[in-house]
Design a protein that fits this description.
Elements: E1 2-5, E2 11-14, H1 18-21, H2 34-37, E3 44-51, H3 63-68, E4 71-73, E5 76-78, H4 90-101, E6 108-111, E7 114-120, H5 124-145, H6 151-156, E8 162-165, E9 168-171, E10 175-177, H7 179-186, H8 194-205, H9 214-222, H10 235-248, E11 264-269, E12 273-280, E13 283-291, H11 301-315, H12 317-320, E14 324-327, H13 330-337
Parallel strand pairs: 11-14
Antiparallel strand pairs: 1-2, 3-7, 4-5, 6-7, 8-9, 9-10, 11-12, 12-13
Amino acid sequence: MVTVQKPNGRPRICIDPRPLNKALKRSHFPLPTIDDILPDVSKAKVFTVCDVKHGFWHVKLTEESSQLTTFATPFGRFRWLRMPMGISPAPEVFQRRLMQALENLPDTYVIADDILITGKGDTTEEAEKDHDRNLRLFLERCREKNIKLNAEKLKLKLRRREVPYIGHLLTADGLRADPEKVRAITQMPAPTGIKGVQRLVGMINYLAKFYKHLSDDCEPLRQLTHKDSLWEWSDVQEDAFKRLKEKITQVPVLKYYSPEEELTLQCDASETGLGAALTQKGKPVAFASRALTLTERGYAQIEKECLAIVFGMEKFHQYTYGRLVQSDHKLLENIFKKP
């Protein structure tokens, strides 16, 4: 048993459940992502975000399961009566229970312990009325099911025109990069070792859907993380680092995907990477990119352009079936026209 300090200064008791997890079977329940709900919030104008207080503790353990969580302390042996953090089935079990408790609530979405309530309408006034009605139904359900909410966080994200949610900023105009994550990158000092580069690339990759041609801009830094590479922070890496920090502050607002509108996949390939962009009505829905392997870099340009299309179709497969693909490589177009 160890204790860690929570952001509010209170202690959190943690156990090491790794030996137990080896014997546990995880539930087969899909965990939703932010991309799953974005099409549904495309017409939302008012948002509220709240989280469940001590989320896992809402799930009471059976006597048999409780016995399995027994742990030793200097004061004797104890066991959990409620589901603790760290056991492998916990995320799926909690997600399923919470979604069951809140099912059929209008414009209410659940990802882990973060709950989003939205309001829609042609005007802001209509959206606020719709939101307030949905929020009232949600709170009544929470009272009925004895779901405890974090009141402090609810006050900060109540009835807003834009709210941070799962690492993104939801607004009435579209999806924005979370300013806190952007600020963390722009204030980051130049890395002094490989671990620092890996941390930087990982932070930027979290915002990859907003960043066009991210793979190409990251290439000078990524080279430093290769197995046999020697550490050298030259002007090339410094320029790439500054360029990334500058461009991350200029990423566009992404349009919410609409199933009713025509969608286009734009693909391109460079000497070092592949890029793809989903657009609707000329506005970006999402970007994606990746570096080419050493073998792929030896491909002819026409093969790279075709590979970019394959990459884009696979990356955005849930959107791209039966859709239009755009490529700026004329020879590739001629090949596809041949019988």
